[in-house]
Each structure stands twice: as structure tokens, then as C-alpha cells.
Recover the amino acids of this structure.
């Protein structure tokens, strides 16, 4: 009994020491009906992999309503997310993937660039990333 009590106290101390670290670098999201990891990741501008890793999830399709998920924040959450204010469209890209890369919605990206049809972007087009730069110079539409 004494050993279990000692182990419990040691575990509590470790949790007390670790909790402030998580509190400083994380946000908590409570899963709602209709949520999935992809939507949650998109909402917070993180990757599904980062979200799964932060929560020890091996199966990214298994979350449940009421589950509390740690949303990683800060520089460690998305090291690949560029910080530039302008993105030059590359072959194979689409507005949705570009928006996901920068943690914005494709609607906001389209609105910031005066794009009426999000399916009509072209290679070499300069897109302003909302909240990260100024408007790009107007580009002629492809023929």
C-alpha cells in the first residue's frame, strides 16, 4: 500500500511539473458532433499529423464527442508553414491546399485576391496571404 501511495504522489508531482509546459504551448479543443481531425486541424492552422502526435492518436479517424484534444501552438506546431505574405502558385497546387498550408480558409484567400472562382488559379500567379502581407500586383488572366 505504501508503495502505491508513493508512486501516486510521484506521478502527481510529475504531472504538476509538466502541465505548465503544455499550458504555455497548447490550446484545448473539446470535440463537437461533426468534428474530425482534418476539420479541427484546419480550424487551428495545424497539420493532422501534428494534432495526432500531440494527442497520441494512432488512428486519426477515431475521436469522440467530448474528447479533449491538445492543439499544439507556437513555432513547434507547423515548422513548414511559410510566413511570407505572398505565395507564387506552383504546378499542381490549388487554392484549398495553399490555404491549408498557410492556415487560412480558401474563401479568405480567394477574397483577398479577388478570385471569383477558386478553381481558376494559374502557375506563376502571386497570391496575397490574408494577414501576412500586402495585395499582389494585378496579373493578367491566362488566355
Amino acid at each position: 500500500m505504501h508503495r502505491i501511495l508513493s508512486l501516486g504522489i510521484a506521478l502527481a508531482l510529475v504531472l504538476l511539473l509538466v502541465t505548465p509546459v503544455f499550458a504555455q504551448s497548447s490550446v484545448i479543443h473539446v470535440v463537437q458532433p461533426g468534428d474530425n481531425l482534418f476539420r479541427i486541424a484546419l480550424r487551428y492552422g495545424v497539420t493532422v499529423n501534428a494534432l495526432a502526435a500531440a494527442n497520441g492518436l494512432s488512428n486519426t479517424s477515431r475521436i469522440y464527442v467530448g474528447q479533449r484534444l491538445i492543439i499544439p501552438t507556437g513555432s513547434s506546431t507547423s515548422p513548414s508553414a511559410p510566413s511570407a505574405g505572398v505565395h507564387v502558385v506552383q504546378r499542381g497546387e490549388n487554392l484549398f491546399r495553399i490555404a491549408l498550408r498557410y492556415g487560412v480558409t480558401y474563401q479568405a484567400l480567394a477574397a483577398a485576391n479577388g478570385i471569383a472562382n477558386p478553381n481558376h488559379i494559374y502557375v506563376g500567379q502571386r497570391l496575397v496571404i490574408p494577414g501576412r502581407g500586402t495585395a499582389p500586383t494585378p496579373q493578367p488572366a491566362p488566355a
In short: The helical segments are 2-25, 37-44, 48-54, 95-102, 106-112. The longest strand covers residues 26-30.
